[in-house]
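Appendix B, example 12.
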Amino acid sequence: MRVEIDGRKLAAAAVAVPVAAVAVLNQYAKRHIVPPEEVPDPYPGDDLLTDPETTTTTMAIEIDAPREKTWPLLNQLGQDKAGFYSFSMFERGVHFLIHNTYTPQERWQHTKVGDWCFFGQQGIGMEVVLHEPGHYWVGLSDTRRPPTQDGAYAWLPAGTDEFAWTWGFFLEDLPNGRTRLLTRTNAFAKISEKGKLKALIVAGLMWGWSSNVMLTRMLEGIKYTAEGRPFLKL
């Protein structure tokens, strides 16, 4: 029996599948974003970047567990520690050797100001600049003030002359022993005159859309882990 293949339908399907996947992930990336008007008060670290063009993104998730269950998971973030509780298959696919550990480890609970939180073995990451045990910590990466830690460097996306950003994690008590985990990023980029298209693609895709997808997964991974609930670890 001979099967006829319609090339036009095959081509249409080849286009439709990735488009549909992007649409689904786009909605997923917005799941926990908090509108600016619902975050009226400044958070620690908001004053670290004073550039007028700074953009801010806030996400939050409610956890049915106290801060004491959640803080140890935040305190051990890092490529060389417990990972980031996100899509490790994707992280390793882009050559970041990250292996998530979903139980608190005492050897990783000594985070302090001045430490470098590695995102990958290449050295990209951020310096811990604020650290209030049990409550919050904030990291900073700024190409205008290169890190001094061994093996560390501040990421400069293609098409930019300067790039700086902060990433903070905050725990807030809720009634009945529950917790709100809020994460907040502030970012500034000075676009190169000759690299506007590259900056749009690299910074927009990596810093914007894809990072929100990964961060959504991270928030949910921390939530399920703190609550002691099983979930699919990808």
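The chain has a mean pLDDT of 85. The first strand starts at residue 55 and ends at 63.
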